[in-house]
From TrEMBL, chain A:
<comment type="similarity">
    <text>Belongs to the SCO1/2 family.</text>
</comment>
<protein>
    <submittedName>
        <fullName>SCO2 protein</fullName>
    </submittedName>
</protein>
<dbReference type="InterPro" id="IPR013766">
    <property type="entry name" value="Thioredoxin_domain"/>
</dbReference>
<feature type="binding site">
    <location>
        <position position="87"/>
    </location>
    <ligand>
        <name>Cu cation</name>
    </ligand>
</feature>
<keyword id="KW-1133">Transmembrane helix</keyword>
<dbReference type="InterPro" id="IPR036249">
    <property type="entry name" value="Thioredoxin-like_sf"/>
</dbReference>
<keyword id="KW-0472">Membrane</keyword>
<dbReference type="Pfam" id="PF02630">
    <property type="entry name" value="SCO1-SenC"/>
</dbReference>
<dbReference type="InterPro" id="IPR003782">
    <property type="entry name" value="SCO1/SenC"/>
</dbReference>
From TrEMBL, chain B:
<keyword id="KW-0496">Mitochondrion</keyword>
<dbReference type="GO" id="GO:0042775">
    <property type="term" value="P:mitochondrial ATP synthesis coupled electron transport"/>
</dbReference>
<dbReference type="GO" id="GO:0008535">
    <property type="term" value="P:respiratory chain complex IV assembly"/>
</dbReference>
<keyword id="KW-1015">Disulfide bond</keyword>
<dbReference type="InterPro" id="IPR042289">
    <property type="entry name" value="COA6"/>
</dbReference>
<dbReference type="InterPro" id="IPR036549">
    <property type="entry name" value="CX6/COA6-like_sf"/>
</dbReference>
<dbReference type="GO" id="GO:0005758">
    <property type="term" value="C:mitochondrial intermembrane space"/>
</dbReference>
<dbReference type="Pfam" id="PF02297">
    <property type="entry name" value="COX6B"/>
</dbReference>
<protein>
    <recommendedName>
        <fullName>Cytochrome c oxidase assembly factor 6 homolog</fullName>
    </recommendedName>
</protein>
Length: 216, 82
């Protein structure tokens, strides 16, 4: 028989082979994880755009969709101008929450949005008139009945117009919720009637603190 | 039906004020609407009819809620239920 490698040498070779195999396996796994991560990010980005998207018009008549608000935090409320009390109160609260957040110069600006659930009556002019009384940066959105229906459905907001009276007047029953959307267009939180402006501001600040932008 | 314009902020506040006065009257007269006719009429004149209906329902709800809080919940007799 030929010379045999000493035990130590054989162990070293076996160790090197095992090490190379392990390194190779780790590399393959790392690459797989990277691909999975990037696929997940792609899905998340598509989900963010698809989730809660809308095709509406602002009070200047300009077409607006969710993509127009990417890069900003958004607080969005669904309501209507003929609303007896809830909508003015919720809009006051929304305005106040935004004002509280504005006091901290370290925080990014929040975009308040109002989407009508009564497109038949709430056209651009009606919205502009109504929203004048609230936060100066509050943007109002309206659209065709189909567009508004789709926007409400995208946010799972219940909308039901009541019966018309002799004057043709009616109220619209709807979910009372303010939605928080992050700069990637991802839905982050929603605030019911029972939350105060201070609580909303505190919650938004908390989300801003933990926010990590989706890498490009 | 794009009939009347929505109430302005001033009109809303006038309506809410009239409502509150009417409700205060009801509170101090044990909900005897007959004692508060004048305020009821003022309330109805200051608010759209749809809002009057809405606030009437709201008052009923608030009173029912108060009743639950003070008296507790007594489920109605369920006659004929197995």
């Amino acid at each position: 028989g030929g010379p045999r490698l000493p035990l130590r040498r054989r162990l070293a070779v076996a160790g090197a082979v095992a090490g190379a195999a392990a390194a190779g396996w780790l590399y393959v796994r790392h690459q797989k994880e990277r691909r999975q991560r990037s696929r997940r990010l792609r899905d998340l980005r598509a989900l963010a755009l698809g989730q809660g998207d809308f095709q509406l018009r602002d009070t200047a008549g300009t077409a607006r969709s969710k993509a127009d608000f990417l890069g900003r935090w958004v607080l969005l409320y669904f309501g209507f101008t003929h609303c007896p009390d809830v909508c003015p109160e919720e809009l006051e609260k929304l305005s106040r929450a935004v004002e509280l957040l504005e006091r901290d110069p370290a925080l990014p600006p929040v975009q308040p949005l109002f989407v009508t659930v009564d497109p038949e009556r709430d056209d651009e002019a009606a919205l502009a008139r109504y929203l004048r009384d609230f936060h100066p940066r509050l943007v109002g959105l309206t659209g065709t009945p189909e567009q508004v229906r789709a926007a409400a459905a995208a946010f799972r907001v219940y909308v039901s117009a009541g019966p018309r009276d002799a004057d043709g007047d009616y109220v619209v029953d709807h979910s009372v919720l303010t939605f928080l959307v992050d700069p990637d267009g991802i839905f982050r939180d929603c605030y019911s009637r029972s939350r105060t402006a201070e609580e909303v501001a505190r919650s938004v600040r908390g989300h801003m603190d933990t926010y990590e932008p989706l890498p490009l | 039906a794009a009939g009347m314009a929505a109430p302005t902020m001033e009109e809303r506040k006038a309506c809410w004020g009239a409502r509150d006065e009417f409700w205060q009257c009801l509170d101090s007269h044990g909900d005897d609407a007959a004692k508060c006719e004048k305020l009821r009429r003022a309330f109805e004149s200051r608010c759209p009819q749809q809002w009057v209906k809405h606030f009437d329902k709201r008052r009923d709800f608030l009173k029912y809620k108060k009743k639950l809080e003070t008296e507790g919940f007594h489920p109605p007799e369920a006659a004929g239920k197995s």
